[in-house]
Structure formats: structure tokens, C-alpha cells
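task queued by scheduler; priority normal; single chain, no ligands, no partner chains; default sampling; output format set to C-alpha cells
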Amino acid sequence: MRKMKQFVSLAITAAMAVGMMSAAAYADGAFYLGASGPLTGPAANYGTAVVNGAQIAVDEINEAGGINGFQIEYKSEDDELDSEKSINAYNALKDWGMQILLGPTTTGCALAVAEKTKADNMFELTPSGSGDDVTKNDNVFRVCFSDSNQGMRSAQYIGEHKLATKVGAIYDSSDAYSAGIEASFEAAAGDYGIEVAVKGAFTADSNTDFSSQLQQCADAGVELIFLPIYYTQAGTILTQATMMGLDVQFFGCDGLDGMLDMENFEKSLAEGVMLLTPFAADADDELTQSFVSKYQEAYGVTPNQFAADAYDGVYAIKAAAEQANLTPDMAVSDMCEALKKAMTEIEVAGLTGETIIWSADGEPNKDPKAVVIQDGAYVSMQ
């Protein structure tokens, strides 16, 4: 009986502590928005872009009066592209008082954190976690295309624009993002008159030498190499392909975005590389030009699609919060339930889509775009 009393006492104390923390955290009448992603390490270009793009949106919204008259408090944490550390980042943001999560940035970390947000019934909107299973829980939505959508759309674009009929694919079979896109690309390729002649798989333990995969592509006479991979490996592949004298087109997905910002990367190696993306920084619409100008002024570089996804994500949260009449004093779970419903009722005119709507399964509906790298910059393709 004493142990039971001690347990009850501890539970009451813990509940009071949480209540006191919540009251203290929201006493200033602000919404607490957390973001997580790789701010250091091999994918830092992704996470940094997400954090920066979201910051611009937060600043704009706060300057315009906030959400339902309440300001946004915004904080980011580094997950270093590590699933375990992504959970640590999530817990740190919870301790800070986070009510809504914008993130994680990458698929592996988003999958790891999804079970935590489900248990807490916290609303989660990932800007760029593209794995198909990322949105399997009903509290998780995304801004980017799913892996299966990216793979299918890539095959569609290559086929409809008659870029190639025989292709090779070089992908990371140990990575959910890369393997997922390759599988959906291969499944759709035949529908668009494309033969996948080479499947050059590698793993995280063999991601520095791609000469074997490139030679297979050369021997098969492929016209184009599909790269559903991250920009770090893509940079190595382009370097080695140039050294081999391999004259072939390259086409990738959102993982290639950020390659031009790699330290010590010779941008001329990427000349002519194409990638499917929902955002083109050279677009001439007013919203894009305003965002690009602010981003360049604040951070000294041109924003990529990860920054644009995050920007649109913050505005989607704003639109849903206003649709649901949220206030900062609501419980996290109640806020989540309201946002889940509201996300299916809003329409966002964003950087990554002139009109973006969401279905109840967390998926966005918007038109894809493609860019080609010319003279060290991304240029829109028709």
C-alpha cells in the first residue's frame, strides 16, 4: 500500500509539474513551433534550409500580427541525420514547450519521430520527409511529394519529354528514401516507354566508389542515369563520371537539391543535371522573388526547395490554425485534432505550388516542376 501511495504521489507531482510548465510556457500567449533536421553533418544543407525558410515565414507572420492575434515562438534542434538523435531533438523541443512540430527534415528521422508524436498526439508537418510510411499516422502531414510520387513523376517527366528510353539507376538500397523512389520509378518506367537497363545499388558502407555502377551504365549504353539519392553521393558520382569520360544525362529528385552549395564542389560538374522539384528560385512570380530576395539577404545564398517547403509548411500551419480557431492555451492533443481536420479544408498558394491542398492521409496535391543546372544555377524547365 505504501508503494501505491508513493506511486500516486509521484504521478500527481509529475502532472502538476507538466501543468506548471505548460502554464509558464504559454503565459506569453504565443504558439510554440518546433523544427528539427540535420544542422550539422553530411545533410546539413537540407536541415539548415528548412530552419531558415521557416524562420522567414515566422518573421513575416509575426510582423503581420501572428496567428489569430498570437505570435509564434520558434525553435530548432539538430538531429544530425541520425534517428536516435532525432528523438533526442524531439524531446528537447517538448521540454521547451513545443505544441506543433515542423519536421523532421529527412525520411529516416521522420519515421523515428512519428511514433513519438503519435503517442503524444502532437500535430506533425514534415516539410521534406518523403518516405511513403512517414504519413501513416493520422497526425502526420507533409509538404513535399512522397517517394512513390517522386519516382512515378520522374518517369512521367522523362518519358513525356522524351529525354531517354534506356536508363540506368544508381541508388542506395540501404536508405528508405532512395530505395523507395527507385522502386516506384522502375514500376512506372514501362508505362512511359522507358527501359531500366541497369540497377546500380550501393549501401551506406559502399558510398564512395561508384566506378562499377557507372561502368555498367556505360556498357549498357544508357542515355540517362537516374539518381534518387542525396547530393553528397551525387557529387561523387558526377566527379567520377567526368573522370571516366562518361557522356550521359543525369536526372534526380529533391535529394540532389543542395549539391551546388557543397563546400569545394566544382559546380561545372553538375552542368546539365536535371531534377524534379516543386520550387524554382528563378520563377518570376512575386511570392518567389520576394522569398528569394529575403533569403539571400538574410543568409547569403539562394534558397532551395527544402527552404521553400518549410516556408509553405509554416503558412499551412497558420492557415489550418486560423481555420480551426486555435489558441495557444489549448492542450496539445486538442490542438492536433483540430489541425488534422482543418488541414483538409484549407488551400495554400505557396512557393511549391500555386494551389496546395491536403487529403486526410496527409498527402499534398500540387503540380511538380523540373529544373536544370546551367552555369552554376537552377533554371526552370518547361
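post-processing summary
- The chain has two domains: 2-145+286-366, 148-277.
- The two ends are 74 Å apart (CA to CA).
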